[in-house]
Amino acid sequence: MIMLSEMNPGEQGIVSKIDAQGELKQRLFSLGLRKGSQIKMKASSISKSTLEVEVGSTLLALRYEEAKMIQVRV
Amino acid sequence: MKEFVIALVGQPNVGKSMLINAIADARLRVGNFSGVTVEKAEVRFVAQGHSIKIVDLPGTYSLNDYTQDERVTKEFLENEPYDLIINVVDTTNLERNLFLTTQLLELDKKMIVALNMMDEAQKEGMCVDHEQLGSILGVPCVKVSAATKKGIGKLLNRAIDMFQFPHEKSKLIYSDVVEEEVAKIVLFLEEKRYKSAFTYRDIALKLLEEDVKTYHQMRDEPLWLELSLILKEALEHLYLHHESKDVSEIFAQERAAFAKGAVLETLTCKKCTSSNMTEKIDAILIHKVFGIPIFVVLMWSLFQLTFELGSIPMEWIDMFFVALGAYIKTIFGEGALGSLLADGALSGVGAVVMFLPNIVILFLGIALLETTGYMARVAFLLDGFFHRFGLHGKSFIPLVTGFGCSVPAYMSARTLKNDKDRLITLFIIGFMSCGAKLPVYVLFVGAFFPQEQAGNVLFLIYIAGALVGLIAAKFLKRFVFKGVDEPFVMEMPKYRLPSLKLIWHTVVIKAILYLQKAGTFILAASMLIWFASNYPKYPEIEAEYAQKIELAQSDEAKASLENEQAKVLLEKSFLAMIGKSTEGLFAPIGLDWKMTVALESGLAAKEVVVSTLGVLYALGAEVDEESEGLLEVIQKEIPFASAVSFIIFVMFYLPCMAASIVFAKESGSYKYLAYLFVFTTIIAWGLSFIGYRIALYM
């Protein structure tokens, strides 16, 4: 189990837990990021402040802080 | 005849706008980016003897009202009258799209699912059994492709068919756990012979979803005593199974599972060569090191192009208007009417029309950025940087739109959910120089810098404006709008080649709007300014000069006397009175009353700045130069330091009237508009002062 924020580009796994609350959780949900989704780290911007991940066939951008709330089973 | 209303609903970037365009050839903007269709757009037409209205609702990922856009959609779907929903889905991303579909099914309205981007799906080797999907969802599914216009006719026919027949309730099937509990509750209601306008299944589901209204109703019933026990047990089963006590989350999971199941049963991949074009392009465009430089170079090229390419037809247009002015004077004479038309109307309108090529190129560039999907990448690249200034990566969208026009920029700030983030963004949008300010810059840069440097200076002006905006944002975040940050989660849409026709449409509409403004608002303003600069009349001064001119020996002396007369009269005009009354405020930053008036009239619309200058300087100079462009006159009459100060002031002061009103609306209060006025004026004046003093020593 690692946090999404700790994953390196190219690594993938399955989301096991999302620590987010309320609206953020709903948002992630409707974008397809939820418990059990396949997730793959694609890229990060300089200093890892923003991350690009692939969930299903959707590309998402999120911040390091949000990625820290998402637990992944590699 | 009854009008049928169709609500077009879908997630962002599914080609909704393109579809509505394909249906009715409407002039709507299509985008790959959230927030392109912020306002609901409508199309009315007649097909097969039915009059139909299609309402294009803002793209929404779900009905959870996360952003203001999504709230608009949700409110429309729940409260407005409509006959049919067309749910547009991106076939290449079916599972995520069907999540919204499951929520729409619960609205219990007539619905058609339009499987859009079928052509793309087929290219990727996907095969969808639309009939099977239709029977799973309980609503018809139609394959369409907005890009190639395939299936559009079928979709419309299907919609018209649906109008004729009564609504059949579709049934969303949940997991066994939920279905079991639903069955238990339904059985209990049946046994009690409970009477209700709703089906037992609906009541059971609503209760499990903790729908407040249903609870209120049921609580007053005698059977509540027993029902509540059954319900409690049912909920506990659900909690146990889903390892969560959050009912909204449980049902979201359920819907997601339904969507996943539906896709599993209906989608087959022959080869499933999921196109990795996007991946390849992303490897370059969001590269850690090269990403930002590439973006900067692209923006720089856009401004270079705007200036270099735009300057060619600009000269022709300028020459055309000067010639036309001279021609009009030969028809209407040198009297008041000829002067009103040539010096007032034409030179004002001409000064604005001259910049049409620049505007067109700039809007073309922005439209391209938006429709290809590159904008989202830029937000990704810049969020880390923006975040440091208290902005959100998504603030980038309204900010860049601000380079085109502040009005849509203010509106697109709605995609920012957090009020404070939105307000900060709203406050600094004006610092992103809008298209209407471009003429001022082009004119002054052209007059004071050599041609080969002009593009660079222009670029610098825009960058400087943006930088000051960022610093201002930091200031606002630190001292005014303190608070928690909005999370940054956004979709990076696939790269798509834009439809040339749509880009063309967008740009043509922009050009027409610009010309309309020039032909109406600017025309009226120019004539008003001409009047204010020609009146009141002073017959005694005119008589005095007429005498002097008569007595003058050479043509040269005559010309200089005529020039002097024009200047003296101008100094005594209404316009001069207005300008001079506020001149004191602008004197420390090196602006004379003419420039002051130009700035003040720019509060109405930024285009008026140049047209006012056109009228003012055309009057002062017409005597000794027959057909000289505005550029040369400015060069001669305005000192360099004042020009610098003027440019800086224009960069930062209050946006035009239309934009200010939209600002007040979007920020939610006129109080904020007053703040904006104070905020921008202080910054504009202060920076102009510094710029002026530095330029004096250069």
What do you see in this structure?
The complex is a heterodimer of chains A (74) and B (698). Chain A has helices at residues 22-30, 64-67, and strands at 2-3, 12-18, 38-44, 50-55, 58-63, 70-73. Chain A has 74 residues and is an alpha+beta fold. In chain A, strands 1-6-2-3-4-5 form a 6-stranded antiparallel sheet. Chain A starts with a strand and ends with a strand. Chain B is α/β, with parallel strands linked by helices and 698 residues long. Chain B folds into 3 domains: 3-164, 3-Layer(aba) Sandwich (Rossmann fold); 176-243, no CATH class; 293-536 and 573-697, no CATH class. Chain B contains 31 helices and 9 strands. In chain B, helix 3 links the parallel strand 4 and strand 5. In chain B, helix 7 crosses helix 8 (200-208), helix 17 (396-404) packs antiparallel against helix 18 (406-412) and helix 18 (406-412) runs parallel beside helix 30. Chain B is elongated and about 115 Å long. The interface between A and B is large, with 32 and 41 residues. Strand 5 of chain A pairs antiparallel with strand 9 of chain B, so a sheet runs across the interface.
Reconstruct the topology from this structure.
The complex is a heterodimer of chains A (74) and B (698).
Chain A: E1 2-3, E2 12-18, H1 22-30, E3 38-44, E4 50-55, E5 58-63, H2 64-67, E6 70-73
Antiparallel strand pairs in A: 1-6, 2-3, 2-6, 3-4, 4-5
Chain B: E1 3-10, H1 16-24, E2 41-47, E3 50-56, H2 68-79, E4 84-90, H3 94-105, E5 111-116, H4 118-123, E6 126-128, H5 130-137, E7 141-143, H6 152-164, H7 176-191, H8 200-208, H9 212-219, H10 224-242, H11 247-266, E8 267-269, H12 277-285, H13 291-332, H14 336-353, H15 356-372, H16 374-388, H17 396-404, H18 406-412, H19 419-429, H20 438-448, H21 451-480, E9 489-491, H22 500-534, H23 539-551, H24 555-571, H25 574-586, H26 593-601, H27 607-621, H28 630-637, H29 640-652, H30 657-667, H31 670-697
Parallel strand pairs in B: 1-3, 1-4, 4-5, 5-7
Antiparallel strand pairs in B: 2-3, 6-8
Helix pairs in contact in B: 3-11, 5-11, 7-8, 7-10, 13-14, 13-15, 13-21, 14-22, 14-27, 15-22, 17-18, 18-30, 19-21, 20-21, 20-28, 20-29, 22-27, 23-24, 24-27, 25-26, 26-27, 27-28, 29-31, 30-31
